[in-house]
């Protein structure tokens, strides 16, 4: 039987996703968690969180010292840090003798070439995944589709392969209907268009816009369109890929989920 993965280093415990990962890990007494945070970060962490500050440029020697003695490393970086530091952090994990590395490969079916073709982030993630494979031989990751609300599953039940997580399958029309039901707000003006046309227009915006935020919005919309376009693997349950039962995670209902999110 494999030794338990007790000591876990989490790089990036703040931001959009990090706090959810940290909360899930700290909720399980089986884990002893260390958060690796940038020196300049002003993020606040829960009381009694073990936080190690490192240089904003993530010097490898310091990272290697932090990783030594840890059984697992979880990477949760923003996009800028990901492109600058991800591969170095992978190298440091290997050199430190970490048993399990969970790289920053969150998302849907980034292995599909069509998704990589029109969604820049999918192509970037695929490149990172290839680098992990070159270093450790296998490339486990999390295929969770779009983050409807952010979540993280139990490390101990995770097999050494990509894990497919789908709490529920839905559509934009169903989400809108659930929102209307939860809020009682009506009178929406809804326009329908094809996903392919949306991809074409959004790609052009991303290519030609001179405004940074316009490009970011375009990339975000492309991520949404990847998730809803048929044939790009967005429906894990229909493909028989879902690991929801393996990880003993509950199924959710879209209306109940949206209602809870709106309550904060």
UniProtKB/TrEMBL annotation:
Which residue range or ranges hold the NAD(P)-binding domain? 12-104
**Per its UniProt record, what InterPro entries does this chain match?**
NAD(P)-bd_dom, NAD(P)-bd_dom_sf, NmrA/Isoflavone_reductase-like
Reading the lineage from the top rank, the first entry is Eukaryota
Query: In its keyword annotation, does this UniProt entry include Oxidoreductase?
Result: yes
Q: Does the keyword Lipid metabolism apply?
A: no
**Keywords of this protein's UniProt record, alphabetized?**
NADP, Oxidoreductase
GO MF assignments: oxidoreductase activity
- Pfam families reported for this sequence: NAD_binding_10 (PF13460)
**What is the name of this protein?**
NAD(P)-binding domain-containing protein
Q: Can you name the source organism?
A: Karstenula rhodostoma CBS 690.94
